[in-house]
Write a structure and sequence with these properties.
single chain; mainly alpha; MetI-like fold; two-stranded antiparallel sheet; 13 helices; 2 strands; 2% strand; elongated
Length: 283
């Protein structure tokens, strides 16, 4: 009930962004039902059909077809499944690793804190796309490699916020009382330190989804992400580059889907941050 009241007070842009995200998620989950065609089915006689055209063999194409006669709308929908999967799993990987290391650094301190923060500084000083290229060259580009690799893209942000929560709670009275009662470090971290860092970590996770989607799309655009024939937004944009003059919809349609999704996630993440900020919430 409280959440519904909060949504009713949200600006129209936030409600529109939430609806767009809900639509993308539903399309990703129910893509076999929503997609009108098999995204890999080819119709060479109907190749490069413009949006809204009808092919004699495959039928009506809302967003047109690509150079192999594949339906763009169906491929955009199946591409959403890949992007949402990587966004969720990649964010979870980064959140777990970063939060765990940050809590350890903040609560334990000393050399462990310096070592973890050194890794954070190294991560932030090197463009992550370069590290991805090196890792893919060594381990390959299967999904079992790409998901944890992409998940490492934003772990340093979680680590910094979790460390701040650990530093703030380490010398608090309730933590000292728990230590006096014989609570183990793991119990103290999970029961007392982690709850103080949950709110900013949730905000960082929401905003980091955009970065994960863009990173996966960038790797697919370079031909290093999910391999054909699986459709992804990045690979569709890459395939459509050479047809921008004659078949602009090949690149514009998946690009528009990516822009709408990332913009919606950013707006919702910024709204969640404002809702969790007591100084803004009390205005």
């Amino acid at each position: 009930m409280r959440m519904w009241k909060t949504l009713r007070r949200a600006p129209w842009s936030i409600r529109l962004a939430l609806l767009a995200l809900l639509a993308v998620v539903l399309m990703a989950v129910f893509s076999p039902i929503v997609a009108p065609y098999n995204p890999e089915a080819q119709d060479l006689l109907g190749r490069l059909a413009s949006p809204g055209s009808t092919s004699t063999l495959s039928g009506y194409h809302l967003l047109g077809t690509d150079a192999l006669g594949r339906d763009i709308f169906s491929r955009v929908i199946y591409g959403a499944r890949v992007s949402i999967t990587f966004a969720v799993l990649g964010t979870v990987v980064g959140l777990v690793i970063g939060t765990l290391l940050g809590l350890i650094a903040g609560y334990v301190g000393g050399r462990i804190d310096h070592a973890i923060m050194f890794l954070v500084d190294v991560q932030q000083s090197i463009p992550f796309i370069v590290l991805c290229l090196v890792a893919i060259a060594i381990f390959g580009n299967s999904q079992t490699v790409l998901i944890p690799l992409i998940g490492l893209a934003g772990w340093e942000g979680y680590a910094r916020y979790a460390r701040a929560g650990g530093l703030a709670a380490r010398n608090s009275q309730y933590v000292l009382a728990s230590q006096a009662m014989g609570a183990s470090p793991a119990q103290i971290v999970l029961r007392h330190v982690l709850p103080n860092a949950v709110a900013p970590i949730i905000v960082v996770a929401t905003l980091n989804v955009t970065g994960v989607i863009l990173l996966e799309s960038s790797l697919s655009f370079l031909g290093l992400g999910v391999q054909p024939p699986t459709p992804t937004w990045g690979s569709m944009i890459s395939d459509g580059r050479q047809y921008l003059g004659s078949a602009w919809w090949m690149a514009v349609m998946p690009g528009a889907a990516m822009i709408i999704t990332t913009l919606s996630v950013t707006l919702v993440g910024d709204w969640i941050r404002d809702m969790m900020d007591p100084t803004i919430r009390q205005r």
